[in-house]
Each structure stands twice: as structure tokens, then as C-alpha cells.
Amino acid sequence: MEENKMFKAFLIKYGEIGIKGKNRHLFEDALVKQIRHSLRRAEGTFEVTKEQGRIYVNCVGEYDYDETVESLQRVFGIVGICPVVILEDEGFDKLAEDVISYMNMVYPDKNKTFKVHARRARKNYPKQSMEINCDLGEKILDAFPEMKVDVHKPEILLQVEIRSRIYVYSEIIPGPGGMPVGTNGKAMLLLSGGIDSPVAGYMIAKRGVKIDAVYFHAPPYTSERAKQKVIDLAKIVSRYSGPIYLHIVNFTDIQLYIHEKCPHEELTIIMRRYMMKIAEHFAKETDCLGLITGESIGQVASQTMQSLAATDEVCTLPVYRPVIGFDKQEIVDISEKIDTYETSILPYEDCCTIFVAKHPVTKPNLNIIKRSELKLAEKIDEMVEEAIRTTEMMVVKED
Amino acid sequence: MEAYLDNSATTPCYEEVRDIVVKTMMVDYGNPSAMHNKGVEAEQYIKQATKVIAATMKVQEKEIFFTSGGTESNNWALIGAAMANKRAGMHLITTAIEHPAISEPMSYLEDQGFRVTRLPVDRQGVISLEDLKAAITEDTILVSTMYVNNEIGSVQPITEIGKLVHEVNPKIIYHVDAIQAYEKYRILPKKMNIDMMSVSSHKIHGPKGVGFLYINSKIKCNPLILGGGQQLGMRSGTDNVPGIAGFGEAVRIGYENLDEKVAKIRNLREYFVNELEKMEDVTVHGMKDNQGAPHIVNAAFLGVRSEVLLHTLEEKEIYISAGSACSTHKRSKSPTLTAIGASAEELESSVRFSFSEWTTKEQLDYCLDTIRQVLPMLRRYARH
Residue A208 falls within a domain, yes or no? Predict the structure, then answer.
């Protein structure tokens, strides 16, 4: 839109990280870093500055408004994005004139209530904040008689900040919330290619956690395209989380060995236990503080309370399951929002869906499972080591 | 050894085809519609390709129209002919085993108010002439059948169908999807009562993105793509000179010693099918006694899911197809195999091998040996 050209800066609002006491500057620095990183995708040159408890994105020269807003909307920690008009200080009358034309441009429908909220960062400005509020309000009322003042619940809160130049803004575009990535350690995501696991990764990343991932590949039972799909999903998640170290484990031999030695109805549970073990190995090796899965209670046989307990039992790290209480549709809604849905539903087999027994156990008894696993004793440790040794590692990030 | 046995999906180009494509991109790159010399030069390539192609079918050059490929040719034939002739009737006849490039436009026409009869096929994938005769009504304006089925290689009795259709009513248009048949059979539309015929370039060692539709000059067909009026106003859009020149060159080379090449492929097929039939729990679909197309073999390896066999062979550089390649992204049941009455187990475990003039006995032996070797392992880990 043409009128977007008048915005030369964005004020970044961040909620939660403002209250982190002495660590506050760490969070703010992380947020600034993430904003700079994300803006590399947008056309334009940007200066990101931190001053007096606010973060500004100043746009130097021409830039693409939509791309810029879109990039900012992917940065965890941002609550709101305010497009700002920057005015030179050329006296109060000129300011009033510019503010009126701003209001005219941004609000074609004048039948609204408003309030002016001025702040004087530069104290030598000839008018005090309250005076600016009253005088500007009056000018606006004169220009647009349909507008009304409401100081309690205005529809438009017009912010006027007097700095070396004057910043005017009133609109707030919502950000994703959460906390800046990198402020809360790192965790290992078990990424399958389905709908749930990318959402789980997104949700944990949103809380400031850096994400690495592990995928279990089973050629020839799963195809190269299935693997590419997982890489594509990781790439989408990395838009939000930053680069992801993706571990691709060849799981075929282990899967076949379990299939050969153990009761088929226990196959999925036993397989999941070995997946967790291998994922945990990589997690510990790369200083992750937890594992992440996309499980939700009762969704499939391997996600009943009993099954989850049985898979948890092999791990010493905490296992985070951010969608545990979500219905499928709620997870789908998030996956559509973060743009992973279309990729997730591509029809390639993943590791968990091949060899699935017609009637898998839904209430596994841990003692029985462990007894079944004894049948694997001869070769399994060696096979797990081999799988770890031959794992392919790649850095997935946005192109 | 690499064994590319997916030639019904696409084929590698002849070297001469590459050369002419490069030349028409880099040297004789003019737009044939331009008035200057550069345009005239480029136009020569199109004239030459048209001449070569028309000669293979003994039709007039003005009856050949270049398209973006088989799918466009099929869409145009059905929609163009149905729309141009709807005042004569609203009934269309096709078969139950057509490629989606026919069955989808047919469904579209159904939504537009046309009535569509889809003829069933027998276990070998062939329609019955009695069914066809019974289906034709006074309202019928178009019959469309494929020549060679892309999945199992069954061959429809084109000559008989054409004769029957025009005996009942000479005004009915007979369209043939010959995308898997061109250069495997000598097709003479005038003799065989074919009014329209679709062909694709990349199935016969030509470039992708080009095909043609033959339209008998006596029938009515509307254009589907409107614009600058190229190709007699029947198919607008700047002529795809590299594609058309490459296509023409592929046809020229393909028709050299055609009968010998086809006989060689047919012999290889016979050998391959015999060897497959010696294996346990393998069903070869399609026509018996090597009566089907010379280059397509479809077989079910019971107990092994088709994708798994495909990916296992892929690791050995053997390339085959599970389902027809053009629709692999949909995990749906094959319409052809369903129509011939294949069992659920066969549907899950059927793969297609397809040959070209470059396929060798060594490649087939390598493929057969590999299958014999991996089958027991794959069957051991079947889903229970």
C-alpha cells in the first residue's frame, strides 16, 4: 500500500522479557540479535537500536514494508510491531499539520474516538507533555469534527514521542509473543514428517529454546522424498527458531531386527524406546537440556498414558511434549498458522507407519516390554552404535 | 550397472535432439511469427518437424497442431470437440482405464452437462466391442479410447473401434490417446477411422513440454488457448521452436528401422515376462502371449509393497515405477488395476517396468537377478 511508504521505523513492543530483572539486558540483546537476523530476508537496510528500554527498527532508504513486517512477525519475543512516522522538529504548528495528515491517511473512516499520548524524551521541547496532548487533540478535533476524544478507552491511541526528531505512531501489529530464541538453552526435537512434531518444535522454540532435531530414516521402506519432506519441514521451523542441526539416523536395520525378534504388537513401543535412546545420545552430545516430541495423549496406540510412560522410561533427560493436551484440530490450526501443514500432509511413509501391527498394544506393561527387549540383547547395542556412527548431520536453515 | 526401466514415464533424449534444441535456442532463436529473416529461419524448423510427423501418419501437415504435451493434447481434444459439437449431442464415451489427462477432462465435461459412459474392461484390460456398440446413442458425439494403456500395456482394438463407431454414425468423432503407442505401432488415422490423436514428445526420446494433436481437417474442434492466432488460430502462443524442432528430430530418428527396434523390444519383453513368471507369487498383469504393448510389463510381487520394491531396486540403480509415474504424488489406487479386477494384495504390490530401444538383455538380467536376490528378504519383513 502506498501510504505504508510514510513509515520509516518500527517500534518493537516486547512484553514478558521486560520483567526479567537483572537479566533484562541479556533478553533484550538476544531479541535485537534475532530481529537483525530475521530482517536479512527483507528488502531494505535496517538499523536496530536499543534505547531507553525500547527497541527501534529504523529503515534506511527504500524498503519493502510487507516483507519487513512479515520478518518481524516471526521473531519470538515481539509482542507488537508499531509502524512509526518520523518527523523533523519544525515547530509545533508543522507538527500539528503532519499529525493531521497522518490521521487522515491511516484512518479514512473518521467516526472514531482517540486520545493523544505525548512523551518528552527531549526535555527542552517548548511544550510539556500535557500541553502537547491538549493542543494536538484540539487541532485534530478542528480538522475532523466527526472524531471524538475518549481518554479512558480510545479506539485510537496516538503516541507522539519528542526525541531529537518526533516519532508518531498509533497502530500495533501483533507479534508472535514468546521469548527470543537462545535465551533458554537448547533441546532435541524428534521430527517425523507428520503434522505434530514441527508444531511441537515451534512451540518450544517460542519459549526461547534453540532447537536441534533428529529424524529416523528407513530406506528402502521410506523414500528419499520422505527424507526431503522432513528437511523441508525443518527449514520452515527454522524460519522461527534459527538454524537447526538435523541428525538423520538410518534406522532400517534396528527396525527389521525388532520386527524379527519381538512380538509385532509391541513393535512400535520398542521402536520408539530405541528412537528415544538414540535421540538422547545426540541431545547429550550437543548439550541439549531436553527432548521434544509431538505426542498428544491418546492420539494413537503409542501415545496412551501407558505408552508414553514406557517410552519415557529409557530417557534421563526431561521429555517435553508441548501439544500433549491438544486435539488434532488444534494442532492442525497451529501448523496452518506456521505454514508447515501443506508439507506435513504430503503422502510419504514415515518410519512409524511401516510395519505397524493391526492391533498394537495400547496399554504396554513395562516388564513385558523389557522382557521382549531381552531377545534383542545379542546385537542391539552394536546396531545402535552403528546407527549413531553412520548418522548424517546437516544444518538446516532458510535459503 | 544402471538399468533405467521407466521409459513409459519419460525417456532420455537422442543426442541429435539435444543438438537441434541447443541450436534453436542459441543460433536460430527467432520467433517464427516475426517478419524478418530470423523469424523465417526459425519457421523452417517447424515446417520440417511438421512434415516429418505428418509423413509418419500419412496425414496433411495442416492437421498437426503442436501443444505443450500429451496432457494438453488430451484436454484440448475432449473439451474442444465436445464444445464445438454439443448441438449435435451431449453424450461422450470413454473407457474405465484412461490416464487422468482423459478421465479428468471427462469429469469436467460431466460437470458442464455432458453425459459420459465409461466402458469396463476385461481381466486383460481390453474393452468389448459389443459394450461399445450398445453404448452409442443418437446423442453420442465423441468416443475417446487410449491405444496402449500406460500402466499395464493393454492394447485396444483401435481399427475395429474406429470402424464400428463410423459405421454406426460417421459424424461421431473418434479420439485416440496414442501417447504410449506412437512409435510402437504404425498408426494411420485415415485408414483407422481416427479423427483426433494425442502424442507426447518425451516418451519417444524428444524434449519434455511438447506434443501434438492430430485433428482431421473435416471435423469441428474449438481452440482451447486463445491469443495471437498462431497455428491457424487453433493453438495460440509463441511457437515452442526448440521443443518442436527437437520433437521432429526425435520422430525422424525413431522411425529409422522402426520395425526392427520394436521387434527387439518385444523379444526382450517376452524374455522378461517368462523369467518373472518362473518366480513364486508373481502375477503379470495385462494381455497374455505377448499380445500387449512391446515395452510395458506390470507385475505384482505378492507380499512386497510396491514402493518398497521400488526403493530397494533404486539402491541398485534400477529404476521402475509403482503406479503410473504421472500420478505418483497421489497415493490412490490405480484405476486400471482396479478396473481389471486386481485383488487388494495385487494392487498394493504392483510395479511397472517399461523399456526403450536402448534397453538391453544385460540390464534385464541384472534387474531379474536383483529381484530374485531381494524378494526373500523383503517378504520376510512383510506387514502382519
Answer: yes
- Asked whether A239 and A346 are in contact (CB, 8 A), the reply is no
**Residues in chain B whose beta carbon is closer than 8 A to a beta carbon of chain A?**
307-308, 310-312, 314-315, 329-331, 380-381, 383-384
Residue B160: phi and psi, rounded to 5, are: -65, -40
- A358 and B384 within 8 Å at the Cβ level: the answer is yes
The question of ipTM being above 0.90 is answered as: no
Which has the closest alpha carbon to B151: B335, B349, B310?
B335
Q: Which domain holds residue A119?
A: 2-174
- Please check whether residue A232 lies inside any domain of the structure: yes
**Using only C-alpha atoms, what is the Rg of chain A?**
27
- Answer yes or no: do A221 and B330 touch at CB < 8 A: no
Q: Is B326 a catalytic residue?
A: yes
Q: Please choose, from the candidates B192, B205, B249, B185, the residue with its C-alpha nearest in 3D space to the C-alpha of residue B46.
A: B249
Total-model pTM: 0.83
In which residue are the cell numbers 512509526 written?
A84
Long-range contacts of A255-261 (CB under 8 A, 24+ apart): A255/A218, A255/A221, A255/A351, A255/A354, A255/A355, A256/B381, A257/A376, A257/A379, A257/A380, A257/A383, A258/A376, A259/A355, A259/B381, A260/B380, A260/B381, A261/A372, A261/A375, A261/A376
* Distance in angstroms (rounded) separating the CA atoms of residues B144 and B175: 5
How far, CA to CA in Å, does A31 sit from each of A22, A34, A178, A179, B158?
Answer: 16, 5, 11, 8, 71
Least confident of A22-26, A59-63, A94-98, B287-291: A22-26
CA torsion angle A57 A58 A62 A68 (round to 10): 10
* Nearest Cβ partner for A256 among B307, B315, B381: B381
Residue pair A346/A243 in contact (Cβ under 8 Å)? The answer is no
**A223/chain B closest Cα distance in angstroms:** 7
CATH for A125: 3.30.2130.30
Q: How far is CA B332 from the centre of its chain?
A: 20
Q: Is A288 in the same domain as A337?
A: yes
Same-domain pairing of A169 and A307: no
pLDDT tens figures, A65-103:
999 999 999 999 999 999 999 999 999 999 999 999 999
At residue B215, φ and ψ (nearest 5 deg) are -130, 115
DSSP track, B94-139:
EETT--HHHHHHHHHHHHTT-EEEEE---TTS---HHHHHHH--TT
How far is Cα B49 from Cα B32, in angstroms, rounded to an integer? 14
**Could you count the other beta carbons within 10 Å of the beta carbon of residue B129?**
14
How far is it, in rounded angstroms, from Cα A274 to Cα A255? 9
Spell out the CATH class of B3-11+258-375: alpha beta
Residue pLDDT, tens place only, B144-168 = 999 999 999 999 999 999 999 999 9
Looking at A252-371, which runs of residues are DSSP E strands?
Answer: 291-292, 319-320
Considering only CB atoms, B383 lies closest to which of A256, A347, A355, namely A355
Alpha carbon distance B212, B244 (integer Å): 9
pLDDT digits (tens, 9 = 90+) for A5-16: 789 999 998 876
Please list every residue in chain B whose beta carbon sits closer than 8 Å to the beta carbon of residue A220: 308, 310-312, 314-315
Contacts of B323 in chain A (CB under 8 A): none
Say if CB B194 and CB B162 are below 8 A apart.
Answer: yes
CA angle A32, A12, A119 (to 5 degrees): 125
CB B283 within 8 A of CB B301: no
- The ranges of chain B annotated as CATH 3.90.1150.10 are 3-11+258-375
Contacts of A349 in chain B (CB under 8 A): 307
